[in-house]
Amino acid sequence: MGKAQSLVAGIDVGGTTVKIALIDTEGTIQLKWEIPTNQKNQGAYIMQETAASIQAVLKQESLSIHAAGVGAPGFIDVENGIISEAVNVGWKDYYLKQELEALLHVPVVVDNDANLAAGGEKWKGSGAGASNLLAVTLGTGVGGGIIAGGEIIHGEFGMAGEIGHIQSVRENGARCNCGKYGCLETVSSATGIARLGLEKVQTERRGYLQDRLSEQGTISAKDVLDGARAGDPDAESVFEEAVEHLGFALANLCNSLNPEVIVIGGGVSKGGAFLTDAITRHFKRFAIPVIGEKTKINLAVLGNDAGVIGAAWLASKTFPEGARQLYER
Amino acid sequence: MGKAQSLVAGIDVGGTTVKIALIDTEGTIQLKWEIPTNQKNQGAYIMQETAASIQAVLKQESLSIHAAGVGAPGFIDVENGIISEAVNVGWKDYYLKQELEALLHVPVVVDNDANLAAGGEKWKGSGAGASNLLAVTLGTGVGGGIIAGGEIIHGEFGMAGEIGHIQSVRENGARCNCGKYGCLETVSSATGIARLGLEKVQTERRGYLQDRLSEQGTISAKDVLDGARAGDPDAESVFEEAVEHLGFALANLCNSLNPEVIVIGGGVSKGGAFLTDAITRHFKRFAIPVIGEKTKINLAVLGNDAGVIGAAWLASKTFPEGARQLYER
């Protein structure tokens, strides 16, 4: 690791840990570590501790950075680097960019963690190089990030990419946290798939899902995918319902956005090719033929590193090495 | 009109006429006119005739331009200014940018006409100033243009904005020109609304729609809107079906894109506030609450000028000669 190398810090703030990486201009992680998220005093010490940790590592390794990118959950005023609200962390109207710039003496850019995960997969993951990419996270909810023309799409007040709230069940859908009924995440998130599985077993009381319920007292999304893969008809029926809704929503987004690639991440994506093959099958039913044919549907590959890599991508792009002098003046 | 003014040419190529305007840096049309589209020899003379017409006007008026923007129908390689295919005009793999730059001696930028209509409404129409805008044209088909972060979204191979092919009728939909069944434009375009009206009257054989059918031998979208406005229950039912599909598709797009404003244009938009009120009602049912509340749904106001104004917007933005002079003044 030569001293002449130009590095940026990628920082991914979560409710439990702050992930930190020093990343070169090629997007390769040179060093990475994490510190606990200090929730005290509405998260007031998190950036101080993060900056101190970065400065200690830089000193020890005789390295320097020329910029930093930060991903945070919640609603963010991206232009000004202000966290409007991040419930998991405790921040409210928090001037993150201003504070971290004062601490690190380098320019800082801030964005939503889901958007930066999309940026990470675009830069170094399974969407490598795509200027037009849709990242989908199938976890507790359904999250998303949209990159179009090489840029993160934010929308008018930062809600772009909230694909989990695409209306999917038109009538009598389950209630969603957003206040609506029948959102995509009520049927295609890990939580949604588990809920559908539980409803199914409560009606049918048989087979693989009943066995899992008797053993565990509950049904997980993994149980549904495992059962479907093993050919259990009830698990298959639930899985098909979940992936049909996903295929429908993603096809309609792609009919309007025409990305090169969709990257599927989150816990449910552990379903692997079994999952993406099923999504692709439904996607092709609902997509404009040429879009159904050409849009790639890939599994995310960066896992927990997507956020820090995406943060570094945005920092590198926003503050290219050559711009440093201009900033410091 | 002072000679020092910095002007661009906005050009909108259609199957019948080429619309041309000289537009200042504020987006005000200083002169506009049109020439017939010369379809001879696969449209080989169109740009020559357009350039000659512009040069004659510039000479006569002692004016000059510093850039030109061109909107054309069909598939376009925007980066290189090549028309891949424009069936209405006859062009195929036509190097429009290269040819027009050689003729006019100013830089030229080319984009799809629907995208530029969105740009026009953004610049000087009912989306004035919005950085995030969705333009919808309800005509023979359903067209669209998406502007996000101030830029036209093109997608991977220029199909972004093709919102007419969002799947709307999930089962047993009507066949669409794109090869799929149940696309938005099979139910919410002028053609789609007329088709639904005709199907209705063939079943019900009564009321306003039957009267129109008896008189005219057919049913138009206008008949459906007029009947619905007058309270005819069959016309109301068809109208509600068409606007519910629109509200659903637009809400789901906005759940992902979060534009500030949706601009509704095309022949069906002559339905005015009666139409936008109905779309808004369904939009709010399917949108994330804060998006349902804050997204404006406006009627387009530029009519046939949207294309030339959008072409001038793109030219001014891409080649900001005029903007600089304005700034320096």
From TrEMBL, chains A, B:
GO terms for cellular component: cytoplasm. It comes from the Bacteria. This is Glucokinase. It holds the Pfam family ROK. SUPFAM superfamilies: Actin-like ATPase domain (SSF53067). Belongs to the ROK (NagC/XylR) family. Its EC number is 2.7.1.2. Keywords: ATP-binding, Kinase, Nucleotide-binding, Transferase. One of its GO terms (biological process) is glycolytic process. InterPro entries: ATPase_NBD, ROK, ROK_cs, ROK_glcA. It is an enzyme of class 2 (transferase). It comes from Alkalicoccus luteus. One of its GO terms (molecular function) is ATP binding. The keyword Kinase applies.
